[in-house]
Amino acid sequence: MILLFRAYVPIREEDLFSALDVAKNTSFYLLEQAKENLSDFYKNNKDFLLKLFNYLNELKLRRVHFAARGRSLYQGARTLAERLMQLGYNSIYPNLEQFIVYDPSAHLVKGDVLIAISTSGETKTVVKKAKFARDVGGDVIAFTGNPNSTLSRLATLPPLIVKPKINQEQLIEKYNPKPFTPLGTTSEFTTLILMESISTGLKEMLYNNREDVGALKKAIATSKALLDNAQKNLETVFSNECENLADFLSNLLLKYYSQQTVHFCARGKTFNMAVGPFKMRLDQIPNAFVTSILDYEPLNRPVRKGQITIVVSGSGMAYSIAKRAKLNGSMIISFTSYENILWEISDVRIKVPGRRKIEITNEHDADWDIRQWRGWTTEFAPRGTTFEVTMAALLDGAFAGLASYIGITENQMKYGHANIE
């Protein structure tokens, strides 16, 4: 095994721990904000949700497409698409390449269904796809924060209005230092919880013969459980892992100032719900981080000495790729739920509760690719995604801490945000 010496980096301690306070406050605020948003959503969309559950229950023979961009694609569309596939729906998985290469499975025809997600309701490619779906005789289900938007008007079912900042001023007021949730952070995180909850409610209808009211109750209970569990987990993390979180932030800051590559290693839902969105935020900082996603060709950069690899894997099943990065000289910073073979090779280890322990007897058992090829899937929420939801809030908090230390504002971040989508 290659051993790395821990280097002390020129990061000001007082400012670093102030950044940690921002990170902590942001993570907890994000959970509170999602609770407020979802309470409002379930209260004001009850009848529409009952219609949605009944509609989805009869949808098995029709193809389901998705329209979303950016973090809404990761945390919203992919979350629901994967769950629908697990439930046996003919769901077209929304991959990033569909915008630049031909996907023979993605053609929309009469009778197909499009689930469209856009907080503003005006995202150009989302609206474009919704218009096309209507033109060919398809149905459009819209999730948006704007009831007066173009997307809302294109919906064939009543649009589901997910407001992203219910009682925001009152929630933020109690925090010092203030949380930092730029751009669409609160909307995207709320949508993540909602899509997992709707999926679990639908599962109740399909597998346990629940009526629509029972499915809705299950969805509401799932949202509450996910957020309550994440809060307990984060309390544990910020209580027990403060020094390791400081090491995590300080190493990220060092790579920002030196323009060294930050590699990411995560798989499946962990990537979609937490790591992918975090990488997008790093890319949006002015003079952005140099980032890489290991084992993903369009964004895969070479691993060299002096770089860091952030590995997020509740069970440690990202071990095989992390080991290769380690052998190439990268520092490994891992987020995992218990001591496992990933933990053993990591230089900075942050224990995040949420994943139940999996017995691993050999390296094949710890290989995510092999488990996926065997047909392994995660449990439904809340148990199946408690780790991911906790990590999503933790990494959004970590980003807020980084932005606080560097001195980044939301207006500055808009210059790093995509303007063609």
Account of the 3D structure:
With 421 residues, the protein is of the alpha/beta class. It has two domains: 191 residues, Glucose-6-phosphate isomerase like protein, domain 1 (Rossmann fold, 3-Layer(aba) Sandwich); 204 residues, Rossmann fold, CATH 3.40.50. It has 15 helices and ten strands. The strands form two sheets. A five-stranded parallel sheet has the order 2-1-3-4-5. It has a five-stranded parallel sheet with strand order 7-6-8-9-10, sandwiched between helices. The longest helix has 32 residues.
Search tags:
421 residues; alpha/beta; 10 strands; globular; Rossmann fold
Sheet with most strands? 5 strands, parallel
Low-confidence stretches: none
Outline:
globular
Classified in CATH, the superfamily of the largest domain is Glucose-6-phosphate isomerase like protein, domain 1
The average pLDDT value, as a whole number, equals 92
Given the structure, what is the number of helices? Answer: 15
End-to-end Cα distance: 45 Å
Query: What count of domains describes the coordinates?
Result: 2
Class of secondary structure makeup:
alpha/beta
SSE string: HHEHEEHEHEHHHHEHEEHEHEHHH
CATH class of the largest domain: Alpha Beta
Write down the oligomeric state: single chain
**The CATH architecture of the largest domain:** 3-Layer(aba) Sandwich
The portion of residues forming beta strands comes to 5-15%
Count of β-strands:
10
In CATH terms, what is the fold-level topology of the largest domain? Answer: Rossmann fold
- Strand order in the sheet with the most strands: 2-1-3-4-5
